[in-house]
Design a protein that fits this description.
By secondary structure, this protein is of the alpha/beta class. The protein has two domains: 8-84, Orthogonal Bundle (434 Repressor (Amino-terminal Domain)); 92-113 and 156-275, Endonuclease Chain A (Endonuclease, Chain A, 2-Layer Sandwich), CATH 3.30.870.10. The chain is built from twelve helices and six strands. The chain has helices spanning 12-26, 31-38, 42-49, 57-67, 76-84, 92-99, 120-132, 138-154, 170-173, 178-193, 243-259, 263-275; strands at residues 104-109, 162-168, 198-203, 217-221, 227-232, 237-240. Strands 3-2-1-4-5-6 form a six-stranded mixed β-sheet, with helices on both faces. α7 runs antiparallel to α8 and α10 packs antiparallel against α12. The longest helix is centred in the middle third of the chain and has 17 residues, at 138-154. It is elongated and about 65 Å long. The N and C termini lie far apart (69 Å).
Length: 278
């Protein structure tokens, strides 16, 4: 039987395939046996191991169940996300995996509406702009837009996560994609504020130096009440799990919420901004 030698250094797909084969062989399983456990054919398993086929999220999650890596820090799903979303900032694919399981999500954004609240049209304009600048490829732009949809879909679960959002006023004042796109996006924000498990506030320009954050920030509370945060700059992102580092950011976030305008007043600001798009 011909056995193709694998080179994990050849690329992320090759590394995924090599890990899959190594995990399988450590347990003494054939490709047929692993295929039965995963719900795939042995031919499919072989193709993923040798890099002839790229794993899907379903395949990666099945592998985590079969190999007992689900819920760990180094899952097959995390590796798959890094392959698929290679154009994203470091740490963000891993963050997204946790976001989809969080009990509470707190986020602050500057300049643009965050992905969890974007309309497809708004997300597409941002992605297309990045393509025009040469920052990403057209395929990567499609992946970014698809990821927005996946993240939003992950929020529709039982029990639903509680989502706290504070947007800098620039998010609703900065025109993106023309009046029609912006009006629909602002309407989406107002609808989001009406949901039973959401809180939406605007941090007005008048806060000045009182605003504690200058960059986007996400804070997650998991089902076991553990905390983690994700912050990013233009060049990189950082996922933080050390409670001693996350707690000060959570405190600052609560201070931000206290100084931001109320949800009712925030929605009024959004409706006022919509008048400027008509």
């Amino acid at each position: 039987m011909n056995r193709k030698e694998l080179n994990p250094e050849a690329g992320p797909e090759a590394a995924f395939g090599a890990r899959l084969r190594s995990s399988r062989e450590e347990r003494g399983w054939t490709q047929e046996a692993l295929g039965e456990k995963l719900g795939y054919s042995s031919t499919h398993v072989s193709a993923v191991e040798t890099g002839r086929k790229i794993s899907t999220m379903r395949f990666a999650r099945s592998a985590d169940v079969v190999f007992g890596t689900a819920g760990t820090e180094d899952t097959f799903e995390r590796q798959w996300r890094e392959i698929r979303h290679g154009s994203l900032l470091e740490g963000f694919p891993e963050y997204v995996g946790y976001e989809g399981r969080a009990a509470e999500i707190r986020l602050f954004e500057v300049g643009v509406v965050p992905g969890l609240l974007q309309t497809p049209e708004y997300a597409s304009v941002l992605a297309e702009s990045a393509v025009k600048r040469g920052a990403i490829t057209a395929d990567q732009a499609c992946e970014r837009v698809a990821l927005v949809g996946e993240r939003q879909a992950a929020l529709i679960r039982t029990p639903s996560p509680v989502v706290f959002v504070v947007l800098d006023e620039s998010c609703i004042r900065r025109p993106i994609g023309g009046s029609a796109v912006m009006d629909a996006q602002l309407a989406r924000l107002a609808e989001f504020a009406e949901l039973p498990t959401t809180v939406l506030q605007i941090a007005p320009f008048g806060m000045g130096e009182g605003r504690p954050f200058d960059l986007p920030l996400y804070i997650l509370t998991m089902a076991d009440r553990s905390l983690m945060s994700y912050a990013e700059s233009a060049q990189r992102g950082h996922l933080e799990r050390d409670i001693n580092s996350v707690l000060p950011m959570l405190t600052a976030y609560h201070q931000l919420q206290a100084e931001a305008v109320s949800q009712a007043a925030s929605v009024a600001m959004i409706h006022q901004a919509r008048k400027g798009t008509s």
